[in-house]
Amino acid sequence: MAPIDSESTRLITGTSPSPFNSKVSPKVERPERRTFTADYKRRILKEAEEGPAGTTGALLRREGLYSSHLTTWREQRARGELARLAPVKRGPKPDPYAAERAALQGEIARLRAELEQARIIIDVQKKVSQLLGLLPMNNAAPICETGDEG
Fold it and tell me: In total, how many domains does the chain have?
């Protein structure tokens, strides 16, 4: 019988021999997303614009930034978002109409309750009128104000 070498092991198991025989792989830390303060963004934009021509690349390398950062920050400043140059919270945005919708739903619920109360009062008034003989017991056709059936 031939000795089993690493090539035979790879063919049999379908995997190549690992240089690490550890069953637990080392835990890799995930880097955190960088955030920049509004003051930092303003300072970098000022340096990039006021510095001598051709030094923007050196500034970006020194700060570890990309040119897209400057582009985005300039657009924010142009739109008047200087006060909001701070990092934006990620995730779904709040619904701007949620408060108005809640108020309208509350008003609808209140109006429905009032309508139900009015219907109950009308039913009670009809029954009292029928008991007192003010209305005929069979009220198939509504009575008009002139007294004629409509």
Answer: 2
